[in-house]
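Exercise 7b. C-alpha coordinates:
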Protein backbone atom coordinates (compact mmCIF):
# COMPACT_ATOMS: atom_id res chain seq x y z
CA UNK A 1 0.00 0.00 0.00
CA UNK A 2 1.21 3.53 -0.78
CA UNK A 3 2.35 5.60 2.16
CA UNK A 4 0.53 8.72 3.31
CA UNK A 5 1.91 12.24 2.74
CA UNK A 6 3.10 12.51 6.37
CA UNK A 7 4.74 9.11 6.52
CA UNK A 8 7.87 9.36 8.69
CA UNK A 9 6.58 12.32 10.75
CA UNK A 10 6.30 11.56 14.47
CA UNK A 11 3.81 13.38 16.69
CA UNK A 12 3.37 13.44 20.47
CA UNK A 13 -0.22 14.28 21.32
CA UNK A 14 -1.07 15.54 24.85
CA UNK A 15 -4.52 16.75 23.85
CA UNK A 16 -8.00 16.07 25.17
CA UNK A 17 -11.63 16.21 24.04
CA UNK A 18 -11.94 17.69 20.51
CA UNK A 19 -9.95 20.67 19.20
CA UNK A 20 -6.35 19.41 19.21
CA UNK A 21 -7.36 15.70 19.06
CA UNK A 22 -9.16 16.61 15.81
CA UNK A 23 -5.84 17.91 14.45
CA UNK A 24 -4.03 14.80 15.69
CA UNK A 25 -6.64 12.60 14.01
CA UNK A 26 -6.02 14.26 10.65
CA UNK A 27 -2.24 13.95 11.08
CA UNK A 28 -2.71 10.21 11.72
CA UNK A 29 -5.10 9.89 8.75
CA UNK A 30 -2.32 11.34 6.58
CA UNK A 31 0.23 8.81 7.71
CA UNK A 32 1.98 10.43 10.68
CA UNK A 33 2.88 8.25 13.65
CA UNK A 34 0.90 9.77 16.52
CA UNK A 35 1.50 8.81 20.14
CA UNK A 36 -1.21 10.02 22.52
CA UNK A 37 -0.34 10.63 26.18
CA UNK A 38 -3.18 10.20 28.67
CA UNK A 39 -3.45 10.26 32.43
CA UNK A 40 -3.50 6.80 34.03
CA UNK A 41 -6.96 5.55 34.90
CA UNK A 42 -9.62 7.82 33.40
CA UNK A 43 -7.54 8.99 30.44
CA UNK A 44 -8.83 11.63 28.05
CA UNK A 45 -11.97 13.37 29.36
CA UNK A 46 -13.77 12.46 26.13
CA UNK A 47 -13.65 8.76 27.06
CA UNK A 48 -16.64 9.68 29.24
CA UNK A 49 -18.63 10.85 26.18
CA UNK A 50 -21.08 8.45 24.55
CA UNK A 51 -22.15 6.57 22.61
CA UNK A 52 -20.42 3.44 23.94
CA UNK A 53 -19.85 -0.05 22.60
CA UNK A 54 -18.30 -2.58 25.00
CA UNK A 55 -17.45 0.29 27.40
CA UNK A 56 -15.45 2.04 24.65
CA UNK A 57 -16.43 5.62 23.74
CA UNK A 58 -17.01 5.97 19.99
CA UNK A 59 -16.63 9.75 20.42
CA UNK A 60 -13.09 9.20 21.72
CA UNK A 61 -12.33 6.64 19.02
CA UNK A 62 -13.39 8.92 16.15
CA UNK A 63 -11.05 11.76 17.14
CA UNK A 64 -8.17 9.52 18.21
CA UNK A 65 -8.20 6.94 15.45
CA UNK A 66 -4.80 5.81 14.26
CA UNK A 67 -3.04 6.92 17.45
CA UNK A 68 -1.00 4.73 19.79
CA UNK A 69 -1.73 5.28 23.46
CA UNK A 70 0.54 5.60 26.49
CA UNK A 71 -0.63 6.53 30.00
CA UNK A 72 1.88 8.58 32.04
CA UNK A 73 1.66 10.20 35.45
CA UNK A 74 3.22 13.52 34.50
CA UNK A 75 3.39 14.64 38.13
CA UNK A 76 5.88 11.84 38.90
CA UNK A 77 9.56 12.57 38.24
CA UNK A 78 9.99 9.30 36.35
CA UNK A 79 6.91 10.11 34.31
CA UNK A 80 8.38 13.49 33.34
CA UNK A 81 11.58 11.77 32.23
CA UNK A 82 9.57 9.46 30.00
CA UNK A 83 7.76 12.45 28.50
CA UNK A 84 11.02 14.23 27.67
CA UNK A 85 12.50 11.04 26.21
CA UNK A 86 9.47 10.85 23.91
CA UNK A 87 9.77 14.55 23.03
CA UNK A 88 13.39 13.99 22.01
CA UNK A 89 12.31 11.54 19.29
CA UNK A 90 9.35 13.33 17.67
CA UNK A 91 8.94 16.08 15.08
CA UNK A 92 5.77 17.65 16.51
CA UNK A 93 4.12 18.07 19.91
CA UNK A 94 0.45 19.12 20.16
CA UNK A 95 -1.53 20.03 23.27
CA UNK A 96 -4.64 21.96 24.32
CA UNK A 97 -4.19 22.45 28.05
CA UNK A 98 -4.92 25.72 29.78
CA UNK A 99 -2.01 28.05 29.09
CA UNK A 100 0.94 27.24 31.37
CA UNK A 101 -0.18 23.75 32.45
CA UNK A 102 2.88 21.87 31.17
CA UNK A 103 5.16 24.66 32.39
CA UNK A 104 3.84 24.18 35.93
CA UNK A 105 4.74 20.48 35.67
CA UNK A 106 8.27 21.37 34.58
CA UNK A 107 7.90 19.89 31.10
CA UNK A 108 6.85 22.96 29.13
CA UNK A 109 8.02 24.27 25.79
CA UNK A 110 11.41 25.50 27.04
CA UNK A 111 12.22 22.17 28.67
CA UNK A 112 11.19 20.36 25.50
CA UNK A 113 13.50 22.54 23.39
CA UNK A 114 16.41 21.52 25.60
CA UNK A 115 16.01 17.88 24.50
CA UNK A 116 14.77 18.63 20.96
CA UNK A 117 15.96 22.04 19.62
CA UNK A 118 14.22 21.52 16.25
CA UNK A 119 10.84 20.71 17.77
CA UNK A 120 7.60 21.99 16.22
CA UNK A 121 5.22 22.74 19.09
CA UNK A 122 1.53 23.29 18.46
CA UNK A 123 -0.93 24.39 21.12
CA UNK A 124 -4.62 25.26 21.21
CA UNK A 125 -5.94 27.21 24.18
CA UNK A 126 -9.27 28.88 24.72
CA UNK A 127 -8.04 32.45 24.91
CA UNK A 128 -4.40 32.32 23.84
CA UNK A 129 -1.16 32.24 25.81
CA UNK A 130 -1.35 35.83 27.13
CA UNK A 131 -3.98 38.40 28.07
CA UNK A 132 -6.44 38.68 30.98
CA UNK A 133 -8.43 35.55 30.01
CA UNK A 134 -5.50 33.29 29.10
CA UNK A 135 -5.65 31.35 32.37
CA UNK A 136 -9.29 30.30 31.91
CA UNK A 137 -10.53 26.94 30.61
CA UNK A 138 -12.64 26.97 27.45
CA UNK A 139 -15.08 24.73 25.60
CA UNK A 140 -16.59 25.16 22.14
CA UNK A 141 -19.74 26.95 23.30
CA UNK A 142 -17.69 29.37 25.46
CA UNK A 143 -15.58 30.46 22.48
CA UNK A 144 -18.71 30.74 20.33
CA UNK A 145 -20.46 32.89 22.93
CA UNK A 146 -17.54 35.23 23.69
CA UNK A 147 -16.52 35.75 20.06
CA UNK A 148 -19.90 37.02 18.88
CA UNK A 149 -20.53 33.88 16.82
CA UNK A 150 -23.62 32.97 18.88
CA UNK A 151 -24.93 36.53 18.83
CA UNK A 152 -24.66 36.56 15.02
CA UNK A 153 -26.63 33.29 14.69
CA UNK A 154 -30.41 33.10 14.54
CA UNK A 155 -33.26 35.23 13.28
CA UNK A 156 -33.19 38.98 13.84
CA UNK A 157 -35.34 39.82 16.84
CA UNK A 158 -35.22 36.30 18.26
CA UNK A 159 -32.86 34.96 20.89
CA UNK A 160 -29.40 34.10 19.50
CA UNK A 161 -28.59 30.42 19.01
CA UNK A 162 -25.40 28.40 19.09
CA UNK A 163 -24.19 26.70 15.88
CA UNK A 164 -25.45 23.14 15.46
CA UNK A 165 -21.96 21.60 15.54
CA UNK A 166 -18.70 22.14 17.43
CA UNK A 167 -17.47 24.69 14.90
CA UNK A 168 -14.97 26.44 17.19
CA UNK A 169 -13.29 23.20 18.25
CA UNK A 170 -12.97 21.74 14.77
CA UNK A 171 -12.04 25.07 13.15
CA UNK A 172 -9.28 25.55 15.75
CA UNK A 173 -8.06 22.01 15.00
CA UNK A 174 -7.94 22.79 11.31
CA UNK A 175 -6.08 26.04 11.94
CA UNK A 176 -3.53 24.11 14.01
CA UNK A 177 -3.15 21.67 11.12
CA UNK A 178 -2.47 24.63 8.80
CA UNK A 179 0.05 26.09 11.20
CA UNK A 180 1.89 22.79 11.68
CA UNK A 181 2.04 22.30 7.91
CA UNK A 182 3.66 25.71 7.50
CA UNK A 183 6.04 24.97 10.38
CA UNK A 184 7.11 21.70 8.71
CA UNK A 185 7.79 23.63 5.50
CA UNK A 186 9.75 26.25 7.46
CA UNK A 187 11.83 23.53 9.12
CA UNK A 188 12.49 21.89 5.76
CA UNK A 189 13.84 25.21 4.46
CA UNK A 190 15.73 26.41 7.55
CA UNK A 191 16.26 23.39 9.78
CA UNK A 192 14.56 25.24 12.63
CA UNK A 193 11.33 24.39 14.42
CA UNK A 194 8.54 26.80 15.38
CA UNK A 195 5.93 27.22 18.07
CA UNK A 196 2.37 27.41 16.71
CA UNK A 197 -0.23 28.92 19.06
CA UNK A 198 -3.95 28.84 18.30
CA UNK A 199 -6.67 30.52 20.38
CA UNK A 200 -10.20 29.16 19.99
CA UNK A 201 -11.59 32.66 20.61
CA UNK A 202 -9.49 34.00 17.75
CA UNK A 203 -10.59 31.18 15.44
CA UNK A 204 -14.27 31.73 16.24
CA UNK A 205 -14.04 35.42 15.30
CA UNK A 206 -11.88 34.61 12.25
CA UNK A 207 -15.04 33.24 10.58
CA UNK A 208 -16.80 36.60 11.04
CA UNK A 209 -16.41 38.13 7.58
CA UNK A 210 -19.43 40.21 6.59
CA UNK A 211 -19.91 42.13 9.89
CA UNK A 212 -16.21 43.04 9.90
CA UNK A 213 -16.47 44.48 6.39
CA UNK A 214 -19.45 46.55 7.51
CA UNK A 215 -17.43 47.80 10.49
CA UNK A 216 -14.66 48.98 8.18
CA UNK A 217 -17.20 51.24 6.43
CA UNK A 218 -19.44 52.42 9.27
CA UNK A 219 -17.54 51.75 12.50
CA UNK A 220 -20.35 49.41 13.58
CA UNK A 221 -20.97 45.68 13.18
CA UNK A 222 -24.05 44.53 11.27
CA UNK A 223 -26.83 42.85 13.22
CA UNK A 224 -27.55 39.22 12.51
CA UNK A 225 -29.71 38.63 9.45
CA UNK A 226 -30.95 35.14 10.23
CA UNK A 227 -31.32 32.87 7.21
CA UNK A 228 -30.72 35.67 4.70
CA UNK A 229 -27.45 37.31 3.69
CA UNK A 230 -27.03 41.01 4.40
CA UNK A 231 -25.59 42.12 1.07
CA UNK A 232 -27.64 40.19 -1.49
CA UNK A 233 -31.27 39.28 -2.17
CA UNK A 234 -32.73 36.81 -2.75
CA UNK A 235 -29.94 35.06 -0.86
CA UNK A 236 -31.23 32.78 1.88
CA UNK A 237 -33.86 30.27 2.91
CA UNK A 238 -37.40 30.02 1.55
CA UNK A 239 -40.37 27.83 2.44
CA UNK A 240 -41.27 24.92 0.17
CA UNK A 241 -44.22 22.53 0.42
CA UNK A 242 -42.05 19.84 2.03
CA UNK A 243 -39.41 21.85 3.88
CA UNK A 244 -37.10 24.63 2.79
CA UNK A 245 -34.85 25.62 -0.08
CA UNK A 246 -32.03 28.15 -0.36
CA UNK A 247 -31.16 30.54 -3.17
CA UNK A 248 -27.84 32.38 -3.58
CA UNK A 249 -28.50 35.11 -6.14
CA UNK A 250 -25.64 37.59 -6.54
CA UNK A 251 -26.14 38.81 -10.14
CA UNK A 252 -29.07 40.42 -11.92
CA UNK A 253 -28.89 37.71 -14.59
CA UNK A 254 -29.54 35.09 -11.91
CA UNK A 255 -32.43 37.14 -10.54
CA UNK A 256 -34.07 37.28 -13.96
CA UNK A 257 -33.47 33.54 -14.45
CA UNK A 258 -35.04 32.76 -11.06
CA UNK A 259 -38.14 34.78 -11.96
CA UNK A 260 -38.48 32.99 -15.30
CA UNK A 261 -38.07 29.55 -13.70
CA UNK A 262 -40.71 30.29 -11.04
CA UNK A 263 -42.98 32.06 -13.56
CA UNK A 264 -42.74 35.34 -11.66
CA UNK A 265 -42.71 37.69 -14.66
CA UNK A 266 -44.47 40.47 -12.76
CA UNK A 267 -41.87 40.28 -10.01
CA UNK A 268 -39.05 40.58 -12.53
CA UNK A 269 -40.62 43.80 -13.83
CA UNK A 270 -41.40 45.22 -10.37
CA UNK A 271 -39.51 48.49 -9.82
CA UNK A 272 -38.94 47.58 -6.15
CA UNK A 273 -36.71 44.68 -7.22
CA UNK A 274 -34.97 45.87 -10.37
CA UNK A 275 -31.50 45.95 -8.75
CA UNK A 276 -29.79 44.11 -5.95
CA UNK A 277 -29.63 47.28 -3.87
CA UNK A 278 -33.40 47.72 -4.14
CA UNK A 279 -34.03 44.03 -3.49
CA UNK A 280 -32.00 44.30 -0.27
CA UNK A 281 -33.92 47.42 0.77
CA UNK A 282 -37.24 45.66 0.10
CA UNK A 283 -36.15 42.24 1.34
CA UNK A 284 -39.24 41.44 3.44
CA UNK A 285 -41.61 42.15 0.56
CA UNK A 286 -39.34 40.18 -1.79
CA UNK A 287 -39.33 37.12 0.47
CA UNK A 288 -43.12 37.20 0.79
CA UNK A 289 -43.57 37.38 -3.00
CA UNK A 290 -41.14 34.55 -3.74
CA UNK A 291 -42.59 32.29 -1.05
CA UNK A 292 -46.02 32.50 -2.64
CA UNK A 293 -44.49 30.48 -5.48
CA UNK A 294 -42.08 28.23 -3.57
CA UNK A 295 -44.52 27.25 -0.82
CA UNK A 296 -46.60 25.15 -3.22
CA UNK A 297 -43.57 23.40 -4.76
CA UNK A 298 -41.31 20.63 -3.50
CA UNK A 299 -37.70 21.31 -2.40
CA UNK A 300 -36.09 19.10 -5.02
CA UNK A 301 -38.47 20.31 -7.74
CA UNK A 302 -37.30 23.87 -7.04
CA UNK A 303 -33.67 22.79 -6.89
CA UNK A 304 -34.00 21.10 -10.28
CA UNK A 305 -35.63 24.16 -11.85
CA UNK A 306 -32.89 26.42 -10.50
CA UNK A 307 -30.16 24.10 -11.72
CA UNK A 308 -31.61 24.18 -15.24
CA UNK A 309 -31.88 27.98 -15.02
CA UNK A 310 -28.28 28.39 -13.82
CA UNK A 311 -29.26 29.78 -10.40
CA UNK A 312 -27.32 28.56 -7.32
CA UNK A 313 -29.86 26.77 -5.13
CA UNK A 314 -30.25 23.71 -2.94
CA UNK A 315 -32.86 21.83 -0.99
CA UNK A 316 -32.28 22.04 2.77
CA UNK A 317 -31.41 18.44 3.59
CA UNK A 318 -31.45 16.50 6.82
CA UNK A 319 -28.33 14.57 7.79
CA UNK A 320 -30.09 11.40 6.71
CA UNK A 321 -30.83 12.89 3.29
CA UNK A 322 -27.23 14.08 3.06
CA UNK A 323 -26.03 10.56 3.85
CA UNK A 324 -28.25 9.09 1.11
CA UNK A 325 -27.25 11.66 -1.52
CA UNK A 326 -25.24 10.25 -4.48
CA UNK A 327 -22.74 13.12 -4.22
CA UNK A 328 -22.03 12.24 -0.59
CA UNK A 329 -21.48 8.62 -1.61
CA UNK A 330 -19.20 9.62 -4.49
CA UNK A 331 -16.97 11.71 -2.21
CA UNK A 332 -16.97 9.09 0.56
CA UNK A 333 -17.70 11.88 3.03
CA UNK A 334 -19.13 9.42 5.55
CA UNK A 335 -17.21 6.19 5.92
CA UNK A 336 -16.80 3.22 8.23
CA UNK A 337 -13.73 2.17 10.19
CA UNK A 338 -12.86 -0.83 12.31
CA UNK A 339 -12.12 -0.33 15.99
CA UNK A 340 -10.50 -3.07 18.06
CA UNK A 341 -12.97 -4.24 20.68
CA UNK A 342 -15.86 -2.53 18.93
CA UNK A 343 -16.02 -3.60 15.30
CA UNK A 344 -17.18 -1.39 12.45
CA UNK A 345 -18.65 2.06 13.12
CA UNK A 346 -19.45 5.23 11.15
CA UNK A 347 -17.13 8.26 11.08
CA UNK A 348 -16.62 11.49 9.18
CA UNK A 349 -13.86 11.08 6.62
CA UNK A 350 -10.91 13.43 6.28
CA UNK A 351 -11.87 15.95 3.54
CA UNK A 352 -8.31 16.56 2.30
CA UNK A 353 -7.41 14.37 -0.69
CA UNK A 354 -4.10 14.05 -2.53
CA UNK A 355 -3.46 12.92 -6.09
CA UNK A 356 -0.62 10.48 -5.41
CA UNK A 357 -0.75 9.57 -1.74
CA UNK A 358 -3.60 8.00 0.27
CA UNK A 359 -5.46 9.39 3.26
CA UNK A 360 -6.59 6.50 5.44
CA UNK A 361 -9.02 6.99 8.36
CA UNK A 362 -9.51 3.24 8.90
CA UNK A 363 -7.38 2.74 12.01
CA UNK A 364 -8.13 1.96 15.65
CA UNK A 365 -7.76 4.30 18.57
CA UNK A 366 -6.21 3.03 21.79
CA UNK A 367 -9.20 1.22 23.30
CA UNK A 368 -8.16 2.00 26.87
CA UNK A 369 -5.62 4.44 28.41
CA UNK A 370 -2.12 3.00 28.12
CA UNK A 371 -3.01 0.36 25.55
CA UNK A 372 0.41 0.64 23.85
CA UNK A 373 2.57 1.81 26.77
CA UNK A 374 5.03 -1.09 26.81
CA UNK A 375 5.36 -1.07 23.02
CA UNK A 376 6.10 2.67 23.00
CA UNK A 377 8.66 2.40 25.79
CA UNK A 378 10.42 -0.43 23.97
CA UNK A 379 10.60 1.88 20.96
CA UNK A 380 12.51 4.34 23.16
CA UNK A 381 15.07 1.63 23.86
CA UNK A 382 13.94 1.01 27.44
CA UNK A 383 14.79 -2.41 28.86
CA UNK A 384 12.00 -4.69 30.02
CA UNK A 385 13.28 -4.30 33.57
CA UNK A 386 12.94 -0.51 33.41
CA UNK A 387 9.50 -0.78 31.83
CA UNK A 388 8.36 -3.12 34.60
CA UNK A 389 9.68 -0.70 37.25
CA UNK A 390 7.90 2.29 35.69
CA UNK A 391 4.63 0.36 35.61
CA UNK A 392 5.10 -0.97 39.16
CA UNK A 393 5.83 2.54 40.49
CA UNK A 394 2.76 3.99 38.75
CA UNK A 395 4.71 6.43 36.59
CA UNK A 396 3.38 4.60 33.52
CA UNK A 397 0.26 2.52 33.16
CA UNK A 398 -0.16 -0.41 30.77
CA UNK A 399 -3.78 -1.33 29.99
CA UNK A 400 -4.76 -4.96 30.09
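Sequence design result:
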Amino acid sequence: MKKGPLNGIKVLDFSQVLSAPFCGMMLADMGAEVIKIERPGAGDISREYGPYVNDVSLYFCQYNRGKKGIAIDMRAEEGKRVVLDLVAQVDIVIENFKAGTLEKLGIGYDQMLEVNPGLIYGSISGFGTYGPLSHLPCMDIIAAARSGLVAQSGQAGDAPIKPGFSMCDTWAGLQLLRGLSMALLHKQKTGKGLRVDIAMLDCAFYMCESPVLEHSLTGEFTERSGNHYTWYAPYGEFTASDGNVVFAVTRDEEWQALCRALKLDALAADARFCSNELRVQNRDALIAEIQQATSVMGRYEIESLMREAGVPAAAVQSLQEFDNNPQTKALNVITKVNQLGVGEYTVTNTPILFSKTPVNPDASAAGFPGANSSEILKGLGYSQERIDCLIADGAVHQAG
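Instructor comment: The chain has a mean pLDDT of 92. Residues 154 and 226 are 5 Å apart (CA to CA).
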